[in-house]
Design a protein that fits this description.
107 residues
Length: 107
Amino acid sequence: TEVCGEPPAVIAAETLQQDPAGVLRVLWRRIGIEDRPDAVRWQAGQRPQWDNWREWHAETAQSRGIHPSRTDYADTVDNHAGLRALYEHHRPFYEEMYAYRLVVRPS
């Protein structure tokens, strides 16, 4: 808000995964872009710009839209001291940003 005088447009991943069209609609209205309902669906497949990171984009290349991501990991903040330290360090910054998240109101 200090740089441009407006609060930042923060997108919470869980909200985007639950309602991609709604989140993008709120974002586009906020920044003055025309609504594009077709932007939340696409053809599956690799993109040339992903060639250097093909393995990293494998799941995305198979997708046809935004969907909830995997959340079952062997290492978590509950069983890994390094992850716990990172979590605790970054949590205040996350909470500050999260306060500015875009909220989708039912139509």
